[in-house]
Write a structure and sequence with these properties.
It contains nine helices and 31 strands. The strands form four sheets. It has a 20-stranded antiparallel sheet that branches. The longest helix has 13 residues. The protein is globular and about 85 Å long. It binds cobalt (II) ion (CO). The site of cobalt (II) ion (CO) has 4 residues, from strand 23.
């Protein structure tokens, strides 16, 4: 299906109206002109990422439409010749380089051109060719080299020692074959990306699994490998059409969106992808603030397989690769259904030229079943019923990170609830094992092929603004009251609130036995009942670290040690695993931010929520994995004086 591009919308988006609007193609081109004119961009400098340097919070909050904007761009570059990383700030208004910092202690995210060059370097490497011929593979036409980040096995992987990536090998049986079905086990290539030097490890020969793993209709027919479906594709799936004959109930102006009582601003960065800013809810004629900024801050996928070909794998998909740059162009009727508004996103290539990711963000309304209902008996014995249907606004994007897809979905509901959900799908990264053997940490999904155990962690940074910038965090635990005079039947329980007053106190884990949740409270704003207004963060399913204390995974993934973190607002503290997780030993990000142990009482604070799932592969995850979801809710808890969705009209006159 063709991608419908709304030209008018695309043109509108290129006009910068608000200080938080994402970078435009013109701004990216201008940044490159300023850098080039300085003479500091030599032929072997690769531009990793341009991102908007967001203005100070007070500047943004005081902004009035039409005011002049001063836009600055934060630039990360790699000088492959001098083997260092450059951080620069370019002022667009002044057409000047405001700052320039050269660093040998960090490695920025990997880029596609580096991956392609590394693939060629591996294929041309004599030791690699020998490793292939030991396996009887002499024709390299269909040998696939696919990337992993290096991880951190020891000091030799430190950022100052070089810029590393690790790659693994598989065999495709045809140009569009699912090569993940045929891993060439035991071969790990380490590539130094400044010099393209290749080091091959060979951990022993295992037969290449032969069963096809194709999942397209043609692939299934060609491989004839699905005895479960002897009749072919289903023929009883009738069309579903979603139409809104009077149009949508949202309005879009540039990047600002209004939907019923919600108002917010849509942002996008190469690293985080979709960002929501300035989220507010209209209550009694005034917009009340909830969130200054909300975005995925990091993702972490540590593998639990002890074998030498796989134990290095622990990947930070946002900081080591970039969720925004990997965003898909979404297609109507395929990725999204209904009356859709798309936002394009613009990122840069290695030469600093703009790349427009058309339809990177999808926004639409969904019917979401019941909002509220009650059936009641009248005094004369007849009945009356009131029912309202729930509708939610969906703002989403999907990124492909190698073998996996991650869908990021923000949902806004009519009752003031905010939900964030991640949909995990794509292909597991399987490994080969000798026929008849069983993996220690994994599940067989096809003969000689297994899915290694791994975890998926996510961290979302929530710059809270519940009725203003001064908030506190309270933990709530439900607990029985002591059986005795005040509780004669032993039935009583209470929801106990504990203030998390400092950053060291605000490192907490889920506790299903007490239905633990956290409230973000504004104690200077009271509801009609005199209670401080609040939103509560309701955890969903979650995971705990399974790697050993002190392991590289433990050090690097420090943000997984607690589910809830809170920090005093600091503009430079943006990422749960630090600015540059690539090849990092660990310690940066949240574990470092909280060292200051700042006060969180009535403070401008940021809540960070870590959530994840343990992926024990199932045979049903092969060859492509049905969606798995993980996420959380933010719900009003005393924020409104009553049910804020009483005013939703009945869906039909007789409801
Ligand atoms: Co998984």
């Amino acid at each position: 299906m063709a991608i419908p591009i709304d030209q008018e919308t695309s043109a509108q988006q290129q006009i910068v109206r608000h200080p938080l609007d994402p970078l435009t193609t013109q701004e990216i081109e201008q940044t490159t002109r300023v850098l080039s004119a300085s003479g500091r961009i030599t032929p072997r400098v690769r531009i990793m990422a341009y991102s908007l340097l967001e203005p100070a919070k007070d500047v943004v909050l005081a902004f009035q439409p039409g005011q002049p904007l001063s836009r600055d761009v934060f630039v990360v570059m790699r000088d492959h010749e001098r083997r260092l990383t450059v951080e620069a700030v370019v002022s667009l208004a002044g057409e000047t380089i405001r700052s320039w910092r050269e660093r040998t202690d960090v490695q920025p995210a990997l880029t596609y051109p580096e991956v392609f060059a590394a693939q060629q370097a591996v294929l041309a490497d004599a030791a690699f060719q020998e490793a292939m011929s030991r396996r009887g593979i002499t024709d390299l036409t269909y040998v696939v080299i696919y990337p992993w980040t290096a991880g951190y096995r020891g000091l030799e992987d430190a950022p100052s020692r070089g810029r590393f990536m690790r790659m693994e090998v598989a065999l495709a049986e045809a140009p569009e074959d699912n090569y993940y079905a045929h891993p060439v086990e035991g071969v790990v290539a380490t590539i130094e990306l400044d010099t393209m030097a290749v080091l091959i490890e060979d951990h022993g020969v295992v037969p290449v699994p032969a069963s096809a793993g194709n999942y397209t209709p043609d692939g299934i027919r060609a491989a004839n490998n699905v005895p479960s479906f002897p009749d072919g594709p289903r023929t009883d799936v009738k069309p579903i059409a979603i139409t809104q004959p009077e149009g949508t109930s949202f309005q879009v102006a540039g990047h600002e969106v209004r939907w019923q009582k919600w108002r917010f601003h849509v942002g996008f960065t190469p690293r985080e992808g979709l960002v929501l800013h300035l989220l507010e809810y209209l209550d009694k004629g005034r917009y009340r603030s909830l969130l200054y900024r909300a975005a995925l801050s990091e993702m972490y996928v540590p593998y639990g397989d002890p074998t030498p070909s796989h134990n290095f794998k622990n990947v930070f998909d946002a900081g080591e690769v970039g969720i925004g740059v990997l965003a898909n162009s979404l297609e109507l009727g395929c990725d999204c259904l209904g009356e859709i508004h798309y936002f394009d996103a613009t990122v840069n290539d290695a030469e600093g030229q703009p790349i427009v990711l058309a339809n990177a963000i999808c926004m639409h309304e969904e019917d979401y079943s019941l909002l509220w209902k009650h059936l009641e008996y009248n005094v004369d014995g007849s009945t009356r019923s009131e029912v309202r249907r729930s509708r939610r606004l969906v703002i989403s994007s999907i990124s492909t990170v190698g073998n996996y897809e991650y869908g990021f979905y923000w949902y806004l509901y009519q009752d003031g609830t905010i939900q964030f959900e991640i949909k995990l799908t794509g292909i597991i990264a399987p490994a080969a094992i000798a026929p008849g053997a069983h993996p220690v940490s994994g599940t067989l999904v096809a003969p000689g092929l297994y899915g290694p155990n791994h975890q998926h962690y996510f961290n979302v940074r929530l710059d809270m603004m519940v009725d203003g910038p001064r908030n506190s965090v309270v933990e709530v635990n439900c607990a029985p009251l002591p059986w005795g005079k005040g509780n004669p039947q032993g039935n009583a329980w209470a929801a106990r609130e504990t203030l998390l007053a400092t950053e060291s106190a605000a490192q907490r884990c889920i506790e299903p036995r007490t239905s633990r949740y956290w409230k973000i409270v504004n104690s200077s704003s009271l509801n009609a009942l005199g209670q401080p207004v609040a939103y509560k963060l309701m955890p969903g399913k979650n995971a705990f670290p399974l790697f050993a204390q002190g392991s590289p995974q433990w050090q690097r993934g420090g943000f997984t040690r607690a589910h809830l973190w809170a920090t005093a607002y600091a503009p430079a503290e943006r990422y749960a695993a630090g600015d540059y997780p690539n090849q990092q030993q660990g310690g940066a990000g949240l574990p470092a931010y909280v060292q200051k142990n700042r006060s969180l009482e009535n403070a401008d604070l940021v809540v960070w929520y870590t959530f994840g799932s343990n992926h024990v592969a199932r045979s049903e995850d092969w060859p492509v994995m049905p969606v798995e979801t993980v996420g959380f809710h933010l719900q009003p808890a005393g924020f409104f004086d009553g049910n804020p969705a009483l005013d939703v009209p009945p869906p039909m006159a007789h409801c």
